[in-house]
Amino acid sequence: MTIYALSSGPGISGIAVVRISGPDSSKVLKLLTKNELPTPRVATLRKINNINTSELIDEGLILWFPSPQSYTGEDMVEIHIHGGKAVVEALLVSLSNIKSCRIAEPGEFTKLAFQNGKINLLKAESIGDLISAETEIQRTQAIKIMNGKSSVKFNQLREKLLKILSFVEAKIDFPEEDLPDENIKQIKKDSFNVMTEIKKILNDHKVGEIIREGFKIAIIGPTNAGKSSLLNNLSNREVAIVSELAGTTRDVVETHLNLDGFPVIISDTAGIRDSKDEIEKKGVKLSLKKAKNADLKLVVVDAKNIDFSGFLNDLLKKNAILVINKSDLLKEELDPEVSKFNHVLISLKDNHNIDKLILKIKNNLKTKFITEEDILITRERHRQHLLQCVEHLKNFSDKNDKKDFDKGAEDLRLATRQLGMIVGNVDVEEILGSIFNDFCIGK
Fold first, then answer.
1. Are the CB atoms for 334 and 324 separated by under 8 Å?
2. Which of 47, 74, 104 is the last residue of a domain?
3. Which of 250, 263, 360, 430 could tie 214 with a disulfide, CB 3.0–4.6 Å?
């Protein structure tokens, strides 16, 4: 089947790009232009016509990429037309009238590129991350993965395991010949070294996933402390409803921010208090769950009413900044116990010390994101495969001590397979859908 889609963004633009890929791409191009194929990979100006009526749709540039020298590895066409909605729609409708053509599914062009050996699975994922990047640090990370640093590392580890496996299988194939003790020791040493390397990669504090998904900040605290006002202030817009009535926020309100190049997801949560209202009780439960999963908590309290007993003390134990609001109403000295915590005294009403709070947040972000090690894991999928690989290597180590080579070989094969699944060196059909469904149509 030949697929097509708008590959540039939807909406009005100066130029729109429609991509066509598949065995009938050349036939489709001839039907649209009423002309012969242009020179491969040379932009050529052509009139683009309605296939059924021969009515002129637009005049634009045609790029013809014969197989295998194309993004997808198939015959492929890119048509550059004016980006008006009616122009794009007319071309797409015309393509839909060709029996051998259908609209592309999300990420299908990149999926074809992977299946045809043009890119590996890590590069395919990084292309999606690059398209979705909203901050500089996300763009930089996606580019590094695209350049193949992760692929090289995982393939090197896989090659080491394959070499170990070859020694073990040699013992299975020729049981009458004993492996020298030196070889057995080397097998143990090499498998242990691979396992150690993987454990080191896993000990990355999930920096790659945080960069890709966004640093999670939860604004939490008692009712009427100014949590929603803080969210609006940090967002520079009215994201949450602000009211003097306690318990206005009952659900989690989220907004995405670019804070000095760092991707941030800030959540405003329901005020924590004892309540008989079932909906509010659910909101409080959601608040505590959000706080537990957050990378940083902004615990907002009223300067006139700070109570360190109960939940407040628990929230401040780890990854938290105590935000003491309404300093404009403060008539006496703060409780000395405040000094024990990482805190800042602010007034949202007077916009006082907001810059100090933002600086504290930025410093926290920098300590989380800056790492001397190369970031190799950017998705939970990668992490799970590596964890499974370590588990199989542990099993191999146990069996190897007992010289149970038959079962040990299977553990090594499974460990090797887990590494292969990260870069796509084995059959990974079961995970392709979840990966490419995150892409936009046209990519």
1. yes
2. 104
3. 263
β-pair type (2-6, 13-21): antiparallel
d(CA 110, CA 164): 34
The residue count for the chain = 443
150 and 28 part of one domain: no
What CA–CA distances, in Å, run from 267 to 252, 261, 264, 297, 377? 6, 19, 10, 10, 25
Which residues are registered as beta bridge partners of 323? Answer: 300, 344
pLDDT tens, 335-347? 777 888 888 999 8
Best CA proximity match to 389, nearest among 362, 354, 420, 368:
420
Enter the pTM of the model.
0.80
Same domain for 341 and 259, yes or no, is yes
Q: Is residue 111 part of a domain?
A: no
Q: What is the mean pLDDT of the chain?
A: 85
H-type alpha helices, 236-375: 278-293, 311-315, 354-369
Q: Within a domain: residue 443?
A: no
Note the pLDDT tens digit of each residue in 101-118: 999 999 999 999 999 999
Q: Mark whether 137 and 196 lie in a shared domain.
A: yes
Q: Which domain holds residue 47?
A: 2-104
Q: Has residue 173 been placed in a domain?
A: yes
C-alpha–C-alpha distance, residues 379 and 204, integer Å: 12
Instruction: Check: CB of residue 423 under 8 Å from CB of residue 151.
Output: yes
Residue type, 156: Q
Run of H or E residues at 327:
none
